[in-house]
């Protein structure tokens, strides 16, 4: 089968399996690039693709400046594509399995207190000067991301009916497509309540969604990223990217450095696998420091 038709069949299968809109778009872009590359190299049929084609494509991406993490993500998409082709008996084997993942430098950047205050101050100033919805929404987005660690898709889909200010919880559709409870503090609940009153005054009719565009329609993946791209330009931070996921990392960082147990962090972050949580604890947790302070061999030696 022509690889472009196989790609189309794969995309239709993802939609049929109710894959999230975000993942559908990622497949369309990341896997679509590989399909175009194969066609440019005159590898037109899916069964003609070999492991060296996959490797050459990833090397091409590397020369373009793609990081190891990006290359591994692309490889993951290509593997999923060929898994589907094998299941549908379009090809005999998954040639992408033979290509090894690249080693990644594990470094996760987080915001420091000064950077958080700088972002909040920017929106506070806008609120005083303009009283615009843009300013109130930006301020509330930062507080919600930072105070809950929820994901970008979860905040886009958050409705006022999901906000329980009395019991201090948010109800979100998590990564596993099930409803999950997220705890909020009284401080965040107070800010959400004030933001709700502002939305009622600002819009003729309040939306079902907590965070909306200026025309009172639900935010999209693109519109929320534009918010943070604009904020990145205003802040001009050189050591950290201004993005929703950086706020999630910052939330986890504060939990780990506070001494919270790995089990509790897993529940707060809603990680399905404790091994993901342990990566963060290994980087940021203070348990090793405390253990070293207590049991270091130099403790019992007079110097």
TrEMBL record:
Positions of the Core-binding (CB) domain: 1-86
Domain of life: Bacteria
SUPFAM superfamilies: DNA breaking-rejoining enzymes (SSF56349)
Pfam families: Phage_int_SAM_1, Phage_integrase
Keyword DNA-binding part of the UniProt annotation: yes
Family membership: Belongs to the 'phage' integrase family.
Protein name: Integrase
Lineage: Bacteria, Bacillati, Bacillota, Bacilli, Bacillales
């Amino acid at each position: 089968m022509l690889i472009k038709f196989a790609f189309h069949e794969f995309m239709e299968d993802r939609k049929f399996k109710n894959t999230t809109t975000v993942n559908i778009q990622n497949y369309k872009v990341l896997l679509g690039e590989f399909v175009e590359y194969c066609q440019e190299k005159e590898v037109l049929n899916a069964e003609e693709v070999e492991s060296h084609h996959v490797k050459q494509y990833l090397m091409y991406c590397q020369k373009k400046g793609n990081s190891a993490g990006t290359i591994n993500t692309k490889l993951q998409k290509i593997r999923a594509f060929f898994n589907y082709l094998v299941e549908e008996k379009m090809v005999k084997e998954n040639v992408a399995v033979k290509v090894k993942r690249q080693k990644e430098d594990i470094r996760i950047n987080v915001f420091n207190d000064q950077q958080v205050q700088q972002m909040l101050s920017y929106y506070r100033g806008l609120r005083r000067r303009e009283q615009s919805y843009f300013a109130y929404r930006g301020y509330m987005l930062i507080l919600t991301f930072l105070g809950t660690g929820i994901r970008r898709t979860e905040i886009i889909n958050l409705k006022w009916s999901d906000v329980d200010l009395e019991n201090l919880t948010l109800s979100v559709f998590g990564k596993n497509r099930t409803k999950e409870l997220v705890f909020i503090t009284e401080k965040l609940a107070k800010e959400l309540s004030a933001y709700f009153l502002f939305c009622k005054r600002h819009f003729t009719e309040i939306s079902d969604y907590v965070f909306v565009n200026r025309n009172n329609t639900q935010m999209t993946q693109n519109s929320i990223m534009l918010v943070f791209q604009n904020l990145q330009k205003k802040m001009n931070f050189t050591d950290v990217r201004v993005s929703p996921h950086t706020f999630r990392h910052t939330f986890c960082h504060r939990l780990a450095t506070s001494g919270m147990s790995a089990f509790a962090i897993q529940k707060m972050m809603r990680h399905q696998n404790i091994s993901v949580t342990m990566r963060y604890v290994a980087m940021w947790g203070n348990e090793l420091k405390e253990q070293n302070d207590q049991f270091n061999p130099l403790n019992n030696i007079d110097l």
